[in-house]
């Protein structure tokens, strides 16, 4: 408890109340969360302000470089992988899993994907036969992960991975119609996926929900128009709007595509300032969708894009000259036909960072650099300070800088939100053959956890704990359902309560695909026992609002989220 006592010695009365509660909580079913809060001290809580968050090193060696990362529902597992092209990794395949792989060199005996236990940091090697470098992916309606494209023999490959403890990748080379390298993938209301773009691929295709490719490409001249000498339209930002249309942003332009009739129905104003997609690599999210109005004419959907690089940055970086990344953000209502970009400035420039939606509805910006562009040795000056963006605050109060890490997270770093509200951070700079020496930014295999400010131990009295268990159950669209939760309060006001539903993303190359957060409509809140409450909420009305899949549900009280529980909607 020493790390908790140190920041509280000036608050003896508060500490007495708090420590008494912790002692009580330690002997309850929620003791694991308390232990994890205290455990955060190992990574730098002591001596730093928990109000700005803190860090811990969760693992010294992830086995492979986490260039791509996602989490599985109803497990404590994250999947991390890079690509076969990077040579000998740090974890070897078991002999039984080498079967089927073409053994050309010693490097082919090593894994390039692992299952990472987010609690114990144990890793299990997974076998991939085709190259997954710069692939795209997403979680399907039934919880299977679907991965498309990659490099070399992986460009037209579809892969599937289920979340069981012994499952491994199933690969289908040649299943895609196009060669998808640096493309983006988004789940659609019917449970199928669209895969957009890729290197020299100015089209898109659909992956039906039965997993069999349609073998058809749909031309999208917009992607050709937004390409340039540096190809600043790779990994386009693709989001499913609340009306079922697709927002697609490439370079500095954006459109609304109707996937039912395969036609562009709207073009948005240019976002000025520079280029925003790989390799200029800005960050982007679809902002939280609020479902409070039971009969809205239009359910608002907004997109936020921050950072990126100036048009001349790539050419200069190739000469070893690194110019400042962009510092601005653009925000636009994609459901408003006459909307324009609204600009705001971040505290510092950032390129190839990650942008995550937190359970509270706030936005976290993390990883990346302050100068240059994405790519090997094309950036400098790591941006090690996370930034919190509170979208509903006045402009002057929207950004807050948080506690910095000590580990540079440059090109090919990743991050994901965990069910307990922490942030898993991994990867950076995959030098060929996992080079750890004689380079400015060596291959990075350490895995960190960042504790956002809402995990401050002083806020534990405001932290709800969901009692309801939705494992094996599904919720239908528009259905009312009840969440029972515990909270150390005599009473709870609706003013201080909200319920959010989060679709965790597949994160790679600075883009978190499929990420989505909904703020559900609350129907009723009642007290059903000592410090036990039930909140009745309405599920999203349509699959355009929330595509069928697994979501994490959080109860948020006074800005402090509960640990999430998994729920399937269909």
UniProtKB/TrEMBL annotation:
Residues 1-19 form the signal peptide. Keywords: Signal. This is Galactose oxidase. Residues 67-454 form the Glyoxal oxidase N-terminal domain. PANTHER family: GALACTOSE OXIDASE-LIKE EARLY SET DOMAIN-CONTAINING PROTEIN, SECRETED PROTEIN-RELATED. The keyword Transmembrane does not apply. Residues 463-569 form the Galactose oxidase-like Early set domain. CDD domains: E_set_GO_C. InterPro entries: Gal_Oxase/kelch_b-propeller (IPR011043), Gal_Oxidase_central_sf (IPR037293), Glyoxal_oxidase_N (IPR009880), GO-like_E_set (IPR015202), Ig-like_fold (IPR013783), Ig_E-set (IPR014756).
């Amino acid at each position: 408890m020493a790390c908790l006592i140190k920041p509280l010695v000036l608050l003896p009365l508060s500490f007495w109340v708090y420590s008494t509660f912790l002692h009580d909580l330690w002997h309850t079913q929620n003791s694991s969360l308390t232990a994890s809060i205290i455990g955060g001290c190992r990574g730098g809580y002591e001596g730093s302000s928990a109000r700005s968050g803190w860090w811990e090193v969760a693992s010294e060696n992830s086995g492979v470089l986490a260039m791509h990362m996602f989490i599985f529902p109803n497990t404590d597992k994250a999947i991390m992988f890079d690509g076969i092209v990077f040579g000998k990794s740090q974890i070897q395949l078991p002999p039984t899993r080498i079967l089927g792989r073409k053994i050309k060199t010693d490097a082919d005996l090593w894994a390039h994907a692992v299952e990472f236990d987010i609690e114990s940091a144990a890793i299990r090697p997974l076998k991939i036969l085709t190259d997954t470098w710069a692939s795209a992916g997403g979680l399907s309606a039934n919880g299977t992960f679907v991965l498309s494209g990659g490099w070399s023999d992986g460009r037209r490959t579809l892969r599937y991975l289920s979340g069981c403890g012994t499952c491994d990748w199933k690969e289908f080379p040649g299943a895609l119609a196009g060669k998808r390298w640096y493309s983006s993938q988004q789940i659609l209301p019917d449970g199928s996926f669209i895969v957009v773009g890729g290197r020299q691929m100015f089209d898109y295709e659909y992956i039906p929900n039965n997993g069999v490719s349609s073998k058809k490409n749909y031309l999208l001249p917009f992607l050709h128009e937004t390409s340039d000498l540096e190809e600043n339209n790779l990994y386009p930002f693709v989001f499913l709007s609340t009306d079922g249309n697709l927002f697609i942003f490439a370079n500095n332009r954006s459109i609304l595509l109707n996937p039912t009739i395969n036609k562009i129905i709207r073009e948005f104003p240019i976002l000025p300032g520079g280029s925003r997609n790989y390799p200029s690599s800005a960050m982007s999210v679809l902002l939280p969708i609020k479902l409070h109005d039971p009969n809205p004419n239009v359910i608002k959907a907004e997109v936020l894009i921050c950072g990126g690089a100036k048009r001349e940055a790539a050419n200069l970086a190739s000469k070893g000259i690194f110019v400042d990344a962009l510092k601005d953000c653009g925000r636009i209502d994609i459901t408003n036909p006459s909307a324009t970009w609204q600009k705001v400035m971040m505290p510092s420039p950032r390129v190839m960072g990650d942008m995550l939606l937190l359970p509270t509805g706030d936005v976290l910006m993390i990883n990346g650099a302050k100068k240059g562009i994405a790519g090997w040795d094309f950036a400098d000056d790591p941006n090690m300070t996370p930034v919190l963006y509170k979208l509903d605050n006045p402009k002057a109060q929207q950004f807050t800088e948080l506690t910095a890490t000590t580990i540079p997270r440059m090109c090919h770093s990743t991050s994901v939100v965990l069910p307990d509200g922490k942030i898993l951070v991994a990867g950076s700079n995959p030098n060929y053959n996992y080079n750890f020496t004689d380079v400015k930014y060596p291959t990075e295999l350490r895995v960190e956890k960042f504790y956002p400010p809402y995990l401050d131990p002083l806020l534990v009295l405001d932290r709800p704990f969901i009692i309801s268990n939705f494992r094996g159950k599904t919720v239908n669209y528009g259905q009312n359902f009840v969440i029972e939760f515990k909270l150390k309060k005599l009473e709870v006001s609706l003013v201080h309560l909200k319920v959010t539903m989060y679709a965790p993303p597949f994160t790679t190359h600075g883009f978190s695909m499929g990420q989505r957060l909904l703020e559900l409509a609350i129907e009723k809140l009642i007290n059903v026992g000592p410090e036990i409450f039930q909140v009745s909420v309405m599920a999203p009305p349509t699959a355009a609002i929330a595509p069928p899949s697994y979501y994490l549900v959080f109860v948020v009280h006074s800005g402090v989220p509960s640990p999430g529980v998994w729920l399937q909607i269909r």
